[in-house]
Amino acid sequence: MAPPLAAAAAAVSSSSPLFSPSSSRPLIRRHAPPSYVSMRTRGRSQPAAAVPPPAAESSGSPLLEVRGLTASVKETGQQILAGVDLTIREGEIHAIMGKNGSGKSTLTKVLVGHPHYEVTGGTILFKGEDLVDMEPEERSLAGLFMSFQAPIEIPGVSNFDFLLMAVNARREKSGLPALGPLEFYSVVSPKVDDLKMDPKFLDRNVNEGFSGGERKRNEILQLSVIGADLALLDEIDSGLDVDALEDVAIAVNGLLTPQNSVLMITHYQRLLDLIKPSYVHIMENGKIIKTGDSSIATQINEGGFKSIALV
Ligand SMILES: Nc1ncnc2c1ncn2[C@@H]1O[C@H](COP(=O)(O)OP(=O)(O)OP(=O)(O)O)[C@@H](O)[C@H]1O
Hints:
Elements: H1 4-12, H2 21-24, E1 62-73, E2 79-89, E3 93-97, H3 104-112, E4 117-126, E5 129-130, H4 136-142, E6 144-147, E7 154-158, H5 159-173, H6 181-194, E8 205-206, H7 212-226, E9 230-234, H8 242-255, E10 261-265, H9 269-274, E11 279-284, E12 287-292, H10 295-310
Parallel strand pairs: 3-10, 3-11, 6-9, 9-10
Antiparallel strand pairs: 1-2, 1-4, 4-5, 7-8, 11-12
Bound molecules: adenosine-5'-triphosphate.
């Protein structure tokens, strides 16, 4: 069984039943942020440019190597992924587009080890290590982060405590000393500010009563606080108004380094205008059928998926 801290870290990036509210609740004691810590935000940290230049193709080392991946729904045996090939190198931003039901979300869920799916063939290497046999919490601690289309609530656990536990789980894995609440507050506060979130969200229970847009911002807060070598962002643009989308894009762009990468799923060009992908992939019937640059997305927007499938 995973140690509690590791499970807490994994819970940040997983909505699997393994990390349901009931399983997370005993792991984390609720602390209000110390009363002597002002909840007023301090000076803003420097925001990244809203619209960066197009991401260059990197010559970085492979971070994720997926070969011939097939996967099925565990309960029914229904095959969803039908032979996915995908390589993501350090420093690259990849976007996956495709019509509803083509398998985009399933791919990301399989990558994080969602228990509803079974890998039936192929390989997944993450930083050269076989991911398939790793537990979801091990994948999280190895540097995978996933923001879900519908982020879960965790009643009884404040955002602040949740983030602190997750950060300390990562630090423990790296042999770093745990942060105390006061120290952590100075880390998290500017990030809350950058995302234009009310600091009160830190003291609210994770996603409880949050609007759809607030949940999405909160997911990106988790990503920016915890960090990731590879962030899987499933439709972070859905339900966000124009301003919120820009705030989220600034936060994501601000996290990018030559070492880490993003795989984002979207239906909309507007996200690709704000977070410039190195590659855009089109998924159909559980496979990536085409890969190119952002112009593919434009073709999709103009011609629809049917014409792309016929190319
Ligand atoms: N646990 C499950 N049980 C049954 N069917 C499933 C399950 N998970 C995925 N599917 C089916 O697999 C197909 C792919 O689903 P998936 O969510 O990956 O699509 P998607 O490309 O992300 O779609 P969208 O753009 O609508 O979000 C769909 O037909 C879906 O109904």
